[in-house]
């Protein structure tokens, strides 16, 4: 089991997004908690480098993505650092 921490900027921004994006985000968090940060079963999932991951929550225009980072503190911790439109994603 993994612990998922939601960055404060993500928590503040989520209320602005469509319900479908929020629902997909909740499902992603549940998957990460149960199965870990490598989520190859999600659309456009990829590793962005050492311990960084991303996937699409909603395709189309605008596309919404999530970016998360595994902790390097020796515990099973993931922090979701970004959820928002593809154009502003911190790749």
Structure description:
It is a single chain. This protein has 2 helices and 5 strands. It is of the alpha+beta class and 91 residues long. The protein has one domain (3-85): RelE-like (YaeB-like fold, 2-Layer Sandwich). A 5-stranded mixed beta sheet has the order 1-5-4-3-2. A hairpin with a 6-residue loop joins strand 4 and strand 5 (77-85). The radius of gyration is 12 Å and the shape is globular.
Explain briefly what this protein structure is.
By secondary structure, the protein is α+β, with helices and mostly antiparallel strands. Helix content is 25%, strand content 34%. The chain contains 2 helices and 5 strands.
What are its keywords?
2 helices, 91 residues, five-stranded mixed sheet, alpha+beta, YaeB-like fold, globular
Layout of SSEs?
Layout: E1 3-6, H1 8-13, H2 19-35, E2 46-49, E3 52-58, E4 64-70, E5 77-85
Parallel strand pairs: 1-5
Antiparallel strand pairs: 2-3, 3-4, 4-5
Number of domains: 1
Q: What characterizes the major β-sheet?
A: 5 strands, mixed
Quaternary state reads single chain
> What would the average pLDDT be, to the nearest integer?
90
| Beta-strand proportion | 25-35%
Q: Under the CATH scheme, which architecture would be assigned?
A: 2-Layer Sandwich
- How many beta-strand elements? 5
By DSSP (H or I, 4+ residues per run), the number of helices equals 2
- CATH class equals Alpha Beta
Specify the overall morphology.
globular
Low-confidence stretches: none
* Rg over CA atoms: 12 Å
Helix content: 25-40%
């Amino acid at each position: 089991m993994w612990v998922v921490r939601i960055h404060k900027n993500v928590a503040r921004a989520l209320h602005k997004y469509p319900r479908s994006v929020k629902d997909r985000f909740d499902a992603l968090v549940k998957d990460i908690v149960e199965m870990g940060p490598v989520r190859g079963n999600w659309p456009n999932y990829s590793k962005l480098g050492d311990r960084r991951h991303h996937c699409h929550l909603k395709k189309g225009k605008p596309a919404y993505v999530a970016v998360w980072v595994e902790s390097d503190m020796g515990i099973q911790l993931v922090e979701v650092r970004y959820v928002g439109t593809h154009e502003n994603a911190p790749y």
